[in-house]
Amino acid sequence: MLYKYALAKGEDVYITEKHRTIGPMLVDLDFRFDPVESHEKPVRTYTTATIDAFANLLGSCVSHYADKETFDIFVLEKPSGPTSIKSLVKDGLHFQIPDIVTRPGVQYVVCADVLKGMPAVLDHLNLVNRYEDVLDESIIERNDWLMYMSKKPGSCPYLVTRVLRYRASDKVLQDVTADTQLDAQSLMDRFSIQNKFEETPIREERLNDVIDHEQQMQEKRKRRELVQTVLTNQPVTSNNICENLEVVCKLVDILDASRGESYNDWVRVGWCLRNIDHRLLDKWIEFSRRSPKYVEGECARMWTHMRMGGLGMGTLHIQHHVSGTHYDIARVVHHMYRYEYVCSSLRNRTWYEFRNHLWHYSDSACSLRKRLSTDVFNEYAQCALYHQHKAVNGDSEQEAQKRNVEMCNKLNAIALKLKTTNFKDNIIKECCELFYHEKFEEKLDSNCGLIGFLNGVYDLENSEFREGRPDDYISYTTGINYVPFSEDLPQLANIKRFWSQVLPKDDIREYVLTLLSSFLSGHTREERFHIWMGSGCNGKSLSVELFDKALGDYTCKFPVTLLTQKRAASNAATSEIARAKGRRFACLQEPSEDERLNIGLLKELTGGDKVQARALYKEPVEFKPQWHIALLCNHLPHVPSDDGGTWRRIRVVEFTSKFVEFPKNANEFPIDLELSEMLDEWKEPFMSLLIEYYKTRYAKKKIKEPDAVLACTREYQKNNDHFADFVDTCIEKTSPSGVLRMSDAFSEFRSWVKDDNIPIRVPKKKDVQKYLDRALGKPSMENGDVCYRGFSVRDRGGGFSNKGGADYDD
Length: 810
What we know:
alpha+beta; five-stranded parallel β-sheet; ATP-binding; hydrolase activity, acting on acid anhydrides; ATP binding; nucleotide-binding; single chain; helicase activity; 810 residues
């Protein structure tokens, strides 16, 4: 629904769908042509006849396996035509058969047959890429498929241009474009690869072909995994963080070719590359081929048995930076830990370390200093041992032995210094510049759609739980593990029972739970200020405490004085706001009975615009708030505002339940004095419930505000907005001939304030008129007085009324 809504609004969309175990037949043809002159626009080479010929070939191959008499082949083209990219002209075609739904194995054998017939169909196009590259098999199961009307950034979507119906019995292709419903809304549903649940039967005589091909594919996959050692089950640790492979390759390229002559040198390079990244096998093979001793297949065989740990990126850099200067050693440290540490402030020497999915503040780079004396020391010590071994057992030439002895002594000297305080201090100082990230703290916890857990990161936008990455820039954590939602989760039944007692009305309970789920996201589109009110022992404080425990670092508390006192001076510290950067929920509690809200600051804190704040003894920071604010109170504070911008933000939920020792009334429930002790057991399943609410309710349907909430809010507005109360009480709508004079309205206003004991000072006449202009519409001047047509003063008993538009004297 959201996808269709975005398209209806004319927004650009870039959504792909993941493949299921079965899916519709998809074909992606990528054409590459020789470049045209720079002043010429590329011209489309294929024709309608080309499309017909390929569709006939595709239909024939599909019907060879699929037991279906007729099916429609949809042809999709880019309206923009071919484009010039990197000295080549690029074009393409998509074919989709939504009525043929099969396992990937069937599509692979169909593609294999199609590939055999492609030369006869496409040879006239003079393509520069091979037919194996023209027919993109990756879209069968590996790569996601673009939804209809979606596109890649900077491109345009593929659109249906023709529909061809293939009849298997006589191999006839018929154009049925004019008879097919081609509106975008219909095609979105028909083309989705997620809603295909009925598999097309395969012809019995072809089943063995499919099974044989699937077995061959499985064997190839096993061999490829063995050679490339794609260790998909290996846990992600700091050692697995992807290094800059381009830098690694350059370092290998400048290594002396003689290192491939000696077995120890050669295998040492392999160890280094294997420990940096398992994808560097090809680079080791490339390096090995520079030696006449190279044996085909030996690298791949050894690669699978190399253990993790030991030699790595640092070893490669040590080979090139052995001068022993603080800067050179810092460069080695930087390349070893560049994805694990960041210096965010050179002035304050502020450091962060990435571990367990999150960025953690590291006081004075303490853990990095420790690694200088352990891991970095070991790197230099191992290199020293290597050169010692070469000096004793290696090259017999005296000059070479001398070089190895010198290198060994130099590396040992550096290694020993890495155990001394002053030397490490200087290394850390040099590291500050190399690890410096100017925008790091600005980016920290700025991604509104990510939530940090102890065991990973949850991506709200993609509904995906995954490993944390350094470029997530997350430092906050819920303090709990993510647990996938299930109705069988421990304590979930107790949690639901608790909420059904705190908020007995179904619509209000669903509203509040959906509201809390929306607080998981840092987006603040609604711009609401929530007030949860009710007398004591009603469960609202316990509800918020449970939410606090579930969200952990993502919640904070504002002092109620933040919104009830005057705005702080521009140069004053606003630590409470500065500390709230990146938080998703902020709570204020229990204002005094006569407190007044600071409306200007309320609008600023809920408006979604950037705010500026300054922590104590720190520089001001500017950031976009992610918090959603809720005020918990027994007595509603006064709101000194009559403008729509204020009341558009405020929503009031009344907690009407009562937890007592001996329940008597319908809204009373037995009190459990030990319930607060259960919240630690509830926080994980409650977070799972909120994520489920976010996925199934908020993300799909947004928030529906119950009538009771709107009514409670209107009543609150009426009690605070005295102008609105006056109009509601003293003014009534009449026939168009009725006339309300401003002088009569102001006189009635003064009487109303006095007679009804309204606790305000009588405002000036022009302020009353300003409000009536907004409430009743544009006035007219009649006999020198401002008049409102169609309204009159209500007869409240004993007073006058000019209802009916009676004549009056000025």
